[in-house]
Structures are given as structure tokens and as C-alpha cells.
Amino acid sequence: MQLRSGRRLVYPPPEPQGGGHRRRSQHSSEDRISGLPEDLLLEVLARLRSPAGAARARAVCRAWRGLWTDLPELWFYSAQPLHVESTLARITRPSLDLLDINLWADWADDEDWNWQVSLLLHGAARVLPDKLIITVSWVPLTNYAVDLPCFERTSYLSLDLMGSLPITLPQYGEFTALKSLYLNSCCIDLGSLLPLCPCLRILNIGNLIVDTVIVHSPSLEEFVLESSNWRSEDVSLANLEVVEIHGLEGKDDEVDFLKIILRCATVLRILTMTISDDISPSNNSYEKIYSIMKEYPDVECHVMASSSEEVLYP
């Protein structure tokens, strides 16, 4: 058996048929798991997908004692952000491949919940995750702001904050490695955030509740926009090649936004839109969208129904 490291796991030769009772007795008292290579032990612990479960594995094998702190991927599903933060403080690896944190329950009723989440985010930044997923599955009674630190090594960042929680951007530093950014139910200033992401390639926005949408990103190549509320837009997308827009209802501000995307994304190749089931090819709103697409014959356009995914165009 070959491990990820390239080392091979060699099984011991079979024991002779006769006269092996004493030898078998000695082997039965040994901890054979402890003799396995460390990378194999880490692979077993990683399959638990639980730092707490990996820590409890020390009761099975002494070689697993404290080994969980060197796991490359960690998942947390917790109601206690401070407990997660204290657990992250024990990590011994210089960096993580993946950190996935899902916070839930009624801790958000505490007056200092925003401080707890902010402290957790700073703790997550210290372990330098390459891929970071933060989900808050609870609507707080009061929308206190949450501090977002710079994740200098993170290339993939997903923030899903139920209730459109306000996010305060870092006062210094940049997201220098960030290439993919997913924002859902976030109250965040895109106009100030995107200049801090010089290498951003993919931007996915869902349920962004803001008055003004400002997207200035010379490095952006793929832009996905789901149902949002906006009153004005300011867009600069010099290198954008692929755009997806979901949940169009044919409103005037949506049509205006579509015009801005097509006008500003000068190298756009593919535009995919899903529209509300209330819009049909005979509807005036559809005619508005269709007329805009005809003005840009060099862009490959696709229009689909939201529920059935029926292709309406071309």
C-alpha cells in the first residue's frame, strides 16, 4: 500500500505455524496502530471530520495523542465561537488546507456575540487557511458589526452570514492570495473590499443588501450575481469573460444593470441569466432583455427559467 507521501506500508511476514504461542502473546499486548506511519494516522483522523472526535481518538491509540493539531483540514459545527477559537489556538501546523466553520444556536442573543465572532475570525486568520468557509446559521436580535481581518494566504473565501450582518473591513493589509470570493447575505462595502483583492478571479454574490453596487476589479474573470437589492451601480470590469446573473425579474434597475455589465465588460465571452417564472418570451420584460442581448452579438448569451431550468434563449 502506497501512502500520499510516497512511502510504502509493508505488512509483517506471516507467523510460523507452530511454536508461535509465546510470540503471539507478546504481540497481543503491543499497540500496533502506533507503529503505523504518521501520515497514515493523520489520514484516518481526517476522515472523522471532527477535531473533537480526532482528539478523543487518543483513547484508542497513544500515537494519536495530540496528533489532531497537525491535521491539514478542520471542520467545526458549533454553538460556541470562543470554544472554536481556543481550539484553533492549539493548531501546530504552519498553515491549513481547509477550515470550515458553521456557527449556530442562540449564542447570537448575547450582547457580545459580535466580539466573539470577530475574535474567531482573527483566530482563523492566524492558522493561514488556503480555503476558508464561514457560515453563521442564526439571525441575531441586533446587527452588530463583525470585524473581518486580512486572510493573507487564503485563495478561496466564502462568507455566508444569515441576516445580512454588517462587516467592518480591515484598516490595513490586503487579501493578496485571494482568487475566489463568495458572499451571501453579507452587508459589506464592495467598493472598498475589491481593491484589497488584487488577484481576484471569481466573484459570487448572493442576497447582497446594499444601496449601491460598486464593482471595480481589473483582475476579475468570472462574476456571478444572484438576487440582490440595489439602487445604483458603478462597475469597471476590464478583464471579465464570464458572467452569471440569477433571479432577474425584468425590473428597470435590473435592465440598467445588465446594460452596464455588457458595456463595461469589454472582453465578455459568455453571459448566462436565469429569469423569474413570471417572465415569458411574450412578456415585455423579456423583450427588454432580449433587445439588449441583440446589441452584443459577440457575447454568447443563455437565458433559462429559474425553476425548470428550461432554456429560453437561444
Automatic annotation (TrEMBL):
Domain FBD: 238-272
Coiled coil (UniProt feature): none
Region feature (Disordered): 1-32
Superkingdom of source: Eukaryota
Residues annotated as domain F-box: 33-76
InterPro entries on file: F-box-like_dom_sf (IPR036047), F-box_dom (IPR001810), FBD (IPR006566), FBL15-like (IPR055312), LRR_dom_sf (IPR032675)
Pfam families for this protein: F-box-like (PF12937), FBD (PF08387)
Protein name: F-box domain-containing protein
Protein's organism: Miscanthus lutarioriparius
